[in-house]
Amino acid sequence: MTGSLEGKVALVTGAGSGLGRGSAISLAAAGAAVVCNDVAAKGLDETIAAIIGAGGRAVAAIGDVSRSADVKTLVAKAVDSFGGLDIVHANAGVERYESLETMADADIDTLLAVDLKGVLLCFREAIPALRSRGGGALIATSSVQATHSLPGCVVYAAAKARVIAAVRTLALEVGKDNIRVVSVSPGTIDTPMLSRDLADMNVADAEGFLQRVRDANALGRIGTPGEIGDVVVYLAGSSASYITGTDIVVDGGFTAVKRF
Ligand SMILES: NC(=O)c1ccc[n+]([C@@H]2O[C@H](COP(=O)([O-])OP(=O)(O)OC[C@H]3O[C@@H](n4cnc5c(N)ncnc54)[C@H](O)[C@@H]3O)[C@@H](O)[C@H]2O)c1
């Protein structure tokens, strides 16, 4: 397998489903060896099989990104399996569609632990490994909900907004080490999370609702995980060598239209 990321090693969290799987497959197709993480084995086999079936290199690494001991093992897995680490896509996330008024403490804690602390831990633990390779890229998955409000997503939006703030600030701390830090804010992407959101929202007419979602995008359609994966490959590679400390919106024009 040859590509723009030949010789690089990537860690993707939440790679057993949705955007993480799309990112892992895209990074591997570009030549990177990929450590594919998820909190449980379910889904990871399919991701690994897709990568290896296409001639790429990947290993599975189970762990909870909100636990620093687990995150340390993910970085160690990259070093042990492939000799180092150059790219992190801190993508694992959870969403709970519920108004703040009724949300339980435990659910607030979980959202912040996975969606915010999980990103911070992955970045923190990876920095020494990237520095020892002469630099690299730290990429987080944020969301358009960080900047565009949707009722029922208060805590999720707060976590995703803080990811963008952390990226901006961390870029200053590690830029001189040639480590770039970027977030990607997807709009609506067709993943299991979207299906669960629809179920949580309990909308009577799911197809009608989905059509409203499509109509809220300039392109008139929902995005695919591969369309995020392609952007991650670009941000991870040398073509993006002057991009750091910023958020890249990949939303089919959702934030431009803003009529949902
Ligand atoms: N799908 C969308 O429309 C959309 C839009 C904007 C942002 N996002 C973000 O994209 C990321 C991926 O979402 P998705 O749509 O692919 O969802 P998904 O539910 O399909 O995949 C998320 C994956 O993260 C894993 N995960 C959850 N908690 C974890 C933990 N503690 N440690 C390790 N892995 C864990 C899950 O097991 C799952 O495999 C999330 O951060 C999400 O907030 C999604």
Automatic annotation (TrEMBL):
InterPro entries: NAD(P)-bd_dom_sf, SDR, SDR_fam. Transmembrane segments: none annotated. Belongs to the short-chain dehydrogenases/reductases (SDR) family. This is SDR family oxidoreductase. It comes from Devosia nanyangense.
